[in-house]
Amino acid sequence: MIGETRVMLEWADDPAQATLEGYRSHGGYEALAKAIREMTPDQVTEQVIQSGLRGRGGAGFPCGKKWTFVPKKTDKPKYIAVNADESEPGTCKDRQIMERDPHQMLEGTLLAAYAIGASAAYVYIRGEYPHSIRAVERAIDEARAANLVGRNILGSGFGCEIWVHPGAGAYICGEETALLTSLEGNRGYPRIKPPFPAVEGLWRCPTLVNNVETLACVTHIIRRGAGWFAGLGCPGSTGTRLFCLSGHIRNPGVYELECGRFTLRELLMDLGGGTLSGRPIKGVMPGGSSFPVLAAGELDVRFDVDSVAKAGTSLGSGAIMVFDDTVSAVDVALNIAEFYSHESCGQCTPCREGSGWVRRMLQLVRDGKAGAGDLETLWDVTTKMDGTTICALAEALVWPVQSYVKKFRPEFEAALAAGIVA
Amino acid sequence: MNFSAELVAKVEGLWKRYPHRQAALLPALHLIQRERGGWLSPETIRDASELLGIPDMHIRGVVGFYDMFHDHPVGRHIVRVCKTLSCKLRGADAIRGHIRSKYGVAHRGTTPDGRFTYMDFECLGHCSTAPMMLVDDEKHENLTLAKVDDVLGRLA
Amino acid sequence: MRVTIDGLPVEVPAGANLIEAAAHAGKSVPHYCWHPRLSVVGNCRICLCEVEGMGKLQIGCNTQVREGMAFHTENARVKGARAGVMELLLIHHPLDCPICDQAGECKLQDYAVDHGTGVTRYGFPKVKKPKNISWGDKVVFDSERCILCTRCVRFAAEVAGTDEIGIDLRGEKATLIVKGDGHLTSPYQMNVIDLCPVGALTSRDFRFKSRVWFMKFTETICTSCARGCNVVAGARNDRMLRMVPRPNPQVNDHWMCDHGRLHYGFVNDPERLTSPRIGGKGAPYPPAIARSAELLKAARGDGILVVASPFMTNEELLALKGICDALGVADRWFVKPTGEGDELLRHPELCPNARGCALLGFEEAPAEPAADRKWGALLHVVPHEGATLPAEIAARAKKRILLSLREREADVCLPLTTWIEKDGTVVSAGDIVQRVAKGLTFEPTLLTERTVLENIRAALEPGFAPADTASQAFARLARACRAFEDLTWQKVGTGGVRLGAQEVAR
Asked: Is C386 within 8 Å of C337 (Cβ atoms)?
């Protein structure tokens, strides 16, 4: 039996946990107090490095290492941008933290601010999350009233402001540089790199961008120690992670798991309960819609970041979408292409023009009006979009779409003449 | 300019949060849109420009970029139904088709009685409780056709 | 620093990006959105190059060279990426070439030929966007043709300072918008037409006038003010059709103002004087020149007023000075038209060569000469427009010899030519001597002022021979005037030369 290891969601079922009093009753803000009173900023960073914590937004970059990119000596103010734009299809986990236990995210933010010397943090919450916005705002107000946010936190010299900043409906604003550009009051355009946000981010000042769940983990790492965190999960995927099961699964939901203890198939059949219909699984997207699909025969991969990467895809944002054999692979690929072409910011040529063309070609295949040459063209156009753009949205379309064409080729070819078969 | 004193006070509060006032644009536009009937007309954008000290054209470009800002009149409520993969797999297509035909609306269209504007929306982050829709600030998860009719029927 | 480009070692300046470095090696990396004077955005993606040691292709515009770097601008991988970008740029692009003014000077056309595949595989309806939108009365916008490189957006924000162009909508629907009432306000707005690499922004003035391959282009300068912005004048069938700026870092950077750009119509004026007139009746040059010399000689006793024009070239002024010297003329004036300059390029002197006038011994006409000043003859080079000698003062000369565009009633009228009809030099603001160059012949029988004035001088001063070429004329100038002594016509070139400080003080 695969069970959860609840750390971040340990108290999430308790409505009081979202309040300061409730949070504190379960050890809340002890980590912050310990850090401020007993640790140097560098020691906080070192703990995060030792923990093996990897970013939970989708890219999986080592969190502590990212913190070291922020320059120590600078005349400019430093900022933190909390990436709460959660818009990756299949992902509904940051919302759990924000709605049910937001203080652990705030505490992690303050710990990060202490570590890098930031004076203000903005929690960029997607506009379509009014509940999260309200919950986080309430939590900040309570924290500020208790001298945990603002100047002179806990009577130390350290101070950091935290503000909620709402998005307004654009997936691309989850890309860290687009988030910063949007936060500054602009269209959400990603930026070319260099410069990198750690050096030139918000208003050209050093800025650390971290995901909600990543910062929640930081709290627990400082509270209970890097060694404890590193002992959970497995090397390369330490700690606990939130995973969202959705689609044709009997037990959809958000689960907090340790990686490396089971395979993907075991997870889906055991905790997931298998497909809702009882029919065979046809495909699984293990990390959101931005990475290749795994076909039915590929599910015995060990469930951790590095193993899944070796299998040619990614755990990404922790969004596991399952579909059974009643669904057409062409239809799924089209749904994904519609998403990315709608969300393309339009800045750079390959994504702006290519994403719409890919969508149109898949529509043609779906409608039974495509020819063999169209599949070749589709493959070539997606290849030309890969690695040629300002940000990774193009890859987020290309990788999954190509994986569907490759792994379900017969279905695509059958659709050429007849439209969708299934 | 004709914004409520309350809104102006909120905007002034927003300005204090950022080293540059332009960063208050998105949160301010949400407030302004809410106060001006749920959409941002050219006049409203001009008023916003004056209040915020941000050029009219810049605001127009922002309004046109984000899916939650409307530059055309909307109904009294906004109904956003998610169409992305997890919701699709759990029956969102049928729900969308049902709403379109029963209420006679297309994407971004408003019901003839002005009750609500319908939008096909991309992933709304409730994938494990799919299918779902957001009606104004209220979430409705695990939808069935009956539940949809119930919620929409109660909209005034 | 030393880098390797396509396998060849090259020495390039530190700080150069890959496009600039490749140019040093004689290689041309295609680019749309990058411009040396605008911020880097890296959105067109056509400048992708392969940098050894880096997995993904890198945009050349945002990659600086490093010592020992090796990169490729034309291997198979780069060519494939470029062809991909080209195809994508063209999928929604309208088939407007037959009606688009940009044809023949369009980077979409040029790169499609050089880097494209020659066929499209896109078979769907194209995205439709607004066409033929007037952004005021100078610039026309066609959104379907726009590749969203944002050069115009950045120009308006970073150079013109008006920040009046923006973008609306998202993805493939994105389109440009303009502030306020949709009309551009900057007096430099037409520079976006040159910047636009495609036919999305075109000139209302030039619209449908001519295909560029039928035109003759001449590198010269604008003469509407003392700045002397470097331009390329475009003519067809010996009539001026347009002017566009060309870069000169010491004069005008890459820009010119709209006023100067549009100010060429007087060249084409069909009412222009095309042959001399004696006493109000048409006459050939020889008798007109002879009559002028006669009148001047006869007026010596009563005093002669010579009024130069600050639109004349240095060589023409030298010829006029020669006449003054031969006749012992004391009153050598010119009238300097002035207006408002701006912080960018426009100079308050609304003429190209007030400095030349001063260097060659002419002084600004007194505002109010004493009421009893009178002259036996007036030799007046009348500017084609703007401030000139008041009629009341001209009337105080018994005889009048005028060189002008339109005057027909005087003792002798000689036709004026415009700056595009002759070779010569002027001294622009900043004491930079620059060439004007002949780009058209308005009327084959017209003689330039230099020729006319030198012939008058020859009539007054036996033994004096007019110069044959621009180079010779400049050599005479260099001999006669210390300010130019170290220069030659060749040295002035098409980029101009700054005069030394000491020579300019008179």
From this structure: yes
- Mean per-residue pLDDT for A391-412? 97
For the stretch A229-276, pLDDT in tens is 999 999 999 999 999 999 999 999 999 999 999 999 999 999 999 999
Express each pLDDT in A282-327 by its tens digit.
Answer: 999 999 999 999 999 999 999 999 999 999 999 999 999 999 999 9
How far, CA to CA in Å, does A172 sit from each of A91, A343, B69?
Answer: 15, 6, 16
Q: Which fold has domain C277-504?
A: Rossmann fold (3.40.50)
Write out the DSSP string of C52-102. TT-SS-EEGGG-B--TT-EEESSSHHHHHHHHHHHHHHHSS--S-GGG-TT
Chain A interface disruption, residue of B57, B89, B96, most A CBs within 10 A? B89
From C36's Cα to the closest Cα of chain B, the distance in A is: 25
C-alpha angle C134-C137-C140 in degrees, rounded to nearest 5: 35
Of A128, A161, A187, the CB nearest to B125: A128
Residue in A187, A360, A388 nearest the CB of C48: A388
Q: Using the beta-carbon criterion (under 8 Å), do C163 and B60 form an inter-chain contact? A: no
Nearest-CA distance from B72 to chain C in Å? 14
Task: Domain of residue A306: give its range.
Answer: 233-324
A50 and A115 share a domain?
Answer: yes
Write the residue in B54, B84, B129 that is nearest to A339 by C-beta. B84
Partners of A347 on chain C (C-beta within 8 Å) are 41, 43, 148
Backbone angles phi, psi at B99, to 5 degrees: -65, -45
- For position B14, which CATH number holds? 1.10.10
Give the total number of structural domains in chain B: 2
Task: Classify C422 as helix, strand or coil.
Answer: coil
Residue A357, domain member (yes or no): yes
